[in-house]
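Structure tokens please, single chain.
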Amino acid sequence: MGIKDFFIKKAIQSQIKNLPKDQQDVILKALEENPEIFVKIAEEVKALTKQGKNQMTAMMEVMKKHQAELQQIFGAQGRGGAPQKRRPF
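Here you go.
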């Protein structure tokens, strides 16, 4: 783990400190295994905020754009590699 990765991980940990430990572990593992998607999301959010959008709106837009990728990443995290199935209710 490089120094940049270390600081990114620490920044993420400070943002998710109120989540349950198991959820924190899932997020940190996803970050370690797929850093490129999280860097891409951060860059897109930064670009939108520079255009004048508030951070929450920018984050929601970018997360919707990358929803399928994120579901694949977190689905694989939650069930030993198998994507999670959504329940109709």
